[in-house]
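Re: zinc ion structure - here you go.
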Amino acid sequence: MSVVRLAVLLALTLGAATVADPLRVHRDAVVVDLHVDTLLDLAAGKRTLDGGGGHVDIPRLRQGGVDVQVFAAYIDPGQAPRGKERASELITAFHRAMDRHADAIASARTVEEIAAAGRAGKIAAVLSVENLGDALQGEIEQVDRLYREGVRLASLTWNPANLLADGARETRHGGLSPLGRRVVARMQERGMIVDVSHLSAAAFWDVLAATRGPIVATHSDAAAVQPHRRNLTDDQLRALAARGGVVGINFYPDFLGAPTLERVVAHVDHMVAVMGADYVALGTDFDGIEKVPQGLEDVSKLPNLTRALLARGYPPEQVRKILGENALRVFRHVWGR
Ligand SMILES: [Zn+2]
């Protein structure tokens, strides 16, 4: 081989080495999705995690390279009068699914359990509650019960007000109630992550004032890119970043502003510009949204996002942070080991 040909070959090899292979970056990354509503279908007996519809099941979690999936027990406000019972139904559905698919997925209540699931080649499943206020029915002790049953993260409200706070669609725009203050204090004592997605702006700021350490918005987008009550202003984004929290990008087209992968990237771009890459995460909202972006039709398509972020010029280490390392940092901080 001539010296010239050798030089060309070396240049090609080195050049190839500096261009990250999206599938490899995605496979090597710890991928964490902070919010899906799959438990609703499981509890209703509509399907199992083997598949049969929706956006999330074990085959598609595997294809999507998901290592940690947070499953929300969402209490519909219409169920508020029997909220405790409804929470139990959804939590039972979660644990049944873990038993049924024990070869493929495992409930994780600690960072060590997440790591153990990974070592065993399993997906780690974290249990959350969405609309904690209605799950408690006014009883603060229910926070302890939910914690014992595995809940490690919870949003205080859905869109309307409940006993804890006002939600994003509540027209009186109120904040955190006295009970809400006691509940977030109890959550912090326990090590249950406080999720501000769905809160009114007033309640958001009340929660920030009433808590210490990282707070998350599991499934919200940037209001500067798409004005929407469910999205966060730049001031809110900066406040979450200052606390070391994360914001999970939501894939719902109405929050994004358009049903495209490019629009998801636009929200990532904005959040990274405002907060830095250490505070952006994923909270797809799959199985809770009736419309999906093109290219991100279900959880199996997540590698497309990695490809798009790399193509956009994000270095692989930043992409890995957004895919999951940032969320894991918060888990570690709030839960301990
Ligand atoms: Zn939601």
